[in-house]
Amino acid sequence: MKYQMFMILFQLFFFASCVNKTNNAEYNIFIFTKTYGYFRYFYPNSEIQKIQWDKFIYFGLNKIKDCKTKQSLIDSLIVIYKPFFNEFEIAERNFTQDYNSAYATGLSDTLMFWQYLGLQSSGKSYLPFKNQIVKYAKGKIISNSVFNEIPKVQYYNHELSPGLNIRFPVVISSNKVGKTNISLPFRKLFEVVNNYNTDTISNITKRLADLVEFWNIIQHFYPYHQESGLDWDNKLTQFITEAQKSTTSNEDYIFKIGHIIKDCHFRINNASYNFFYLPFKAKFINETLIVTQTQHNELNIGDIVLKINNTNVSDLLNEKSLFFSGTEWFIKEYATNYMLAFNKQDSVTVEYKRENKVYYTKFVPDKYKHSNSSKAINNNLYYINLADDGISISNIIIIAGKYKNIIIDMRNGNGGINLLEFFQHLSSDTLVPPFLFALPKILYPDYTNVDYLNTNENIEPLVPKLNNNVVILSSPQCISYSESMIKLAQINKFATIIGERTGGTNGVINYSRLPSGLIIGWTGGKCVNINGSQHHLIGISPDIEVKPTLSGIKAGKDEVLEYAIEYLQKKLVNEK
Known about the structure:
The protein is α+β, with helices and mostly antiparallel strands. The chain has 3 domains: 19-201, no CATH class; 276-363, Pdz3 Domain, CATH 2.30.42; 375-575, 2-enoyl-CoA Hydratase, Chain A, domain 1. It has 17 helices and 27 strands. The strands form 6 sheets. Strands 2, 3, 4, 7, 20, 21 and 26 form a 7-stranded antiparallel beta sheet that branches. Strands 10, 11, 12, 13, 15 and 16 form a 6-stranded antiparallel beta sheet that branches. Strand 18, helix 13 and strand 19 form a beta-alpha-beta unit. The N and C termini lie far apart (62 Å).
């Protein structure tokens, strides 16, 4: 309670001090960021969408950066927005909420409002998110309906900061839209914004522009605020400060913001990732980084890695973890892999220990050559590693017709293989879906009063019917589609899951473009367990938890696989 009171007092002090400073750029950027998303995404005027929004952000940031008082900031915001959005108020007073005024009986105007089924942005998303300005007249929707719900209020009121509020329409008359479009200020400012010169924009301004867009996308459309424990609103001040002080690249800055949303899907699709790796794989067992696979004769399985290029591996883990988002166990797994990734260069020095003796070896990063490992264990058991080259769903179905017992290893990914078809052959009845998948139906800003559209479809069985004993090996690297397949097998009792808890993120991934050109990936759809309980940041618990141990790896064992083999052999004996 004392901590919460302290934070409230701190925030009040921050905003009070901000508006009394002679040149408070951070507060100005804070308010512009919050107002931008309201007008960009929720003011229902289709003509306004012809604005080049990247340039609008640069234009707006330039206009408000030197405002020295709260009133001068308000005046500048009105200059920025009024020619485009003629019906709104920003003032140092509270506004009264006016319910149902948009749908007054006998209103003859055609009314318009936004409907969002998720957020359609880059066009790269896996499911058809939909955004439409809907037209409504005489008590019914007359065009562009995405779903049936309509806003219950005409105006949206929100506190931007203590003592400063905004009121703007989420429903607007087409007559008022028309008046805006023909106004001289609109035409002039439209030309100014769309012809805004971006050649001389500083790196700090570009970073801030990306922040403005990214913050609003997550604020208004990310479905996991509650599960992730996001204090997204209050984080904005921190992000603004870091944007102005950061000496890192813009993509590194965005990575660090994405880390906070706790979303395993978060990625920057066109970032400069490193795809050359040291010739070994390693895993942290507690605080020890131990070699689990090696393709170099100077390094053995079980060797303990101490430093890479003279940096302690624990420090490297902390550094690389900022480039991933989601659960701690997912981040640790992926950050460990990324520690071993480099630009192709002459050499990387690795310090490692074997039997209390320390060695130093220089390795040349290269494409890691994964060794094919799928094979028959015996006449009744076949091991399938989905990460192997050449494995396909047709191969798996053929193998399942020859071998009673199947082990499917998903610990290194699913290889893009659609396991659903295999599971459909294991059932005679309609399959129970693994999760409840839904897209958010958004009418208001700030992810307020959101309902969901169920996107689940029936999964029917396929012939011929197969009758196999199946084990799936799981790890923290299993997220998204892999989790769907693991849960489908588990809930329909097609397989026993052995290994470690999965990463804990599912739902439709979305992609959005930032002003700098970076494409960010984030989870745009909602996913919960079929009983309605939370899956995000929890993951799937295996039926039998088996974790690699330090002693096991040193002995060259794959303890998870060995347990699965023993489990199926016992099962076969019991069936006889």
